[in-house]
Amino acid sequence: MQSAPHIVVVDDHGDIRDLVGKYLAQQGYRISVAESGTALRRILERGAPDPIVLDVMMPGEDGLSVCRQLRSTMQLPIIFLTAMADDTDRIIGLELGADDYLTKPFNPRELLARIRAVLRRVNSLPPNREAIKAKTVQFDHWQLDVGRRELIGGDGVGIALSTAEFRLLKAFLEHPGLVLSRDQLLDLTAGRSADCFDRSIDNQVSRLRKKIELDPKNPAIIKTHWGGGYSFSAEIASA
Amino acid sequence: MQSAPHIVVVDDHGDIRDLVGKYLAQQGYRISVAESGTALRRILERGAPDPIVLDVMMPGEDGLSVCRQLRSTMQLPIIFLTAMADDTDRIIGLELGADDYLTKPFNPRELLARIRAVLRRVNSLPPNREAIKAKTVQFDHWQLDVGRRELIGGDGVGIALSTAEFRLLKAFLEHPGLVLSRDQLLDLTAGRSADCFDRSIDNQVSRLRKKIELDPKNPAIIKTHWGGGYSFSAEIASA
DNA sequence: GCCGTTTGTCGCAGAGTTGTGCCTGACCAA
DNA sequence: TTGGTCAGGCACAACTCTGCGACAAACGGC
């Protein structure tokens, strides 16, 4: 959680700039807005922002050419806004190196979700599939059957895990001991659903704890790091 | 600490100039006041100040145009004062290159906080992530596990660090030996909360010392530089 | 189409952390 | 030595973060 990310919104419509800017500022981001590619370049001179939200359709220089030009000089995450729901344009945008796109009219919440996803990806951990090549993994008094997505207790009794629980547990097993932020966990659990409220991770952790911890109130396997995230602190042995 | 920063307050209201000027002078800053853009330019001829506090609404030439003109000729931190609580205007200010803004009526303390934040940003140290690419760092009789956010003592016993403690220690490890001012430390520890009273750093240092120093009363690792800040003076080896 | 399961969201209460006030003691300059 | 400023440290308060129960929406099987 470094200092708040800096987002630049580029759109020729004042009302969209207002709406988006206001909403994102409210969410704690540092916002700059620009009405054209030229104005954007002026902002960029004063330091690189984290992601850029860029309208495709603008009079004069359009978003695609701005993107093309930016990409040639610097590595910046770009999220496109486009009025055209036509897939062709989406694909062109992504081909140019956009990290994501959104078609108007859009829900501000969804934009927020995309932005967070992009930011997550930028700070993402390298994957570590090695740890889990094995068919079963042992930790604490459990044995995880990766294929069956099932936990087997010391007494041989199996407990079924839901998809999300299994993904979360796998993310932990692939990065044992590390303190993982909620954003990283969202990323690791293949945060397919563009959900933005990372409190959902809290809930998943809570549910998982209820299944695997002897005493869920005093968790011994998944530890909480106040202000930091969670870590998996049990010994792991793959078989 | 170098010589006190020089702040120019530009507002057409005499009472605000007095109030703000008096308060900031009391805090140890060198203050100039101006009632208009013309007066500001006269002050600027005599040397560039550090930040400018600029009212948006002024008769004649307003703050926005003053800002636009300043930005075209020199690189100066600008903090806007605006009576309009409307977010649109805030964003317009940022678009023009303001570094921060404040809506009237404002708390002088908050203005102070913003000024300090801007000054911190201007004097900020370049980040030095290289030093800590390694997974663990050794110093004194400790070994810091960066991923686990844990200190391991010579006896192998781990000590958990809180988020703020970990950030502070990391800041020190990334700039070993350097005397870091409280402002720089606030900046390095991602001083998210724009709190102005740097005594909080003292407290963090105190808490950290209690955890890592053999004798917290006679600190050997984190040294105090009277009137200057703190420095990390242990040998560091990354593994 | 209905129903059970899963999963995200909300809201509140509790826990832990972190900032602030205040006092004491250390350091520096006359 | 004396006065002033700055740092250390304690304790409290405020704050933020987290845990979790409850609810609702989404999903999938039948």
Task: Provide an overview of this structure.
Two copies of one chain form a homodimer. Chain A is of the alpha/beta class and 239 residues long. The first copy, chain A, folds into two domains: 6-124, Response regulator (Rossmann fold), CATH 3.40.50.2300; 136-238, Winged helix-like DNA-binding domain superfamily/Winged helix DNA-binding domain (Arc Repressor Mutant, subunit A), CATH 1.10.10.10. Helix content of chain A is 37%, strand content 21%. In chain A, helix 5 packs across helix 7 and helix 6 packs across helix 8. Chain A is elongated and about 70 Å long. The model of chain A has no long low-confidence stretch (mean pLDDT 83). Chains A and B meet through helix 1, strand 2 and helix 2 of A and helix 4 and helix 6 of B.
Percent in strands of chain A? 15-25%
Mean pLDDT of chain A, as a whole number?
A: 83
Please outline the major beta sheet of chain A: 5 strands, parallel
- The Cα radius of gyration of chain A reads 21 Å
Strand line-up of the largest beta sheet of chain A: 2-1-3-4-5
CATH topology category name of the largest domain in chain A? Rossmann fold
Q: What is the helix content of chain A? A: 25-40%
Number of strands of chain A: 13
Greatest interface and its residue counts?
A-B, 25 and 19 residues
CA-based shape of chain A? elongated
Shape-level CATH architecture of the largest domain in chain A: 3-Layer(aba) Sandwich
What is the H/E order of chain A? EHEHEHEHEHEEEEHEHHEEE
How many independent structural domains of chain A? Answer: 2
For the record, what CATH class of the largest domain in chain A applies? Answer: Alpha Beta
Task: Please name the fourth-level CATH homologous superfamily of the largest domain in chain A.
Answer: Response regulator
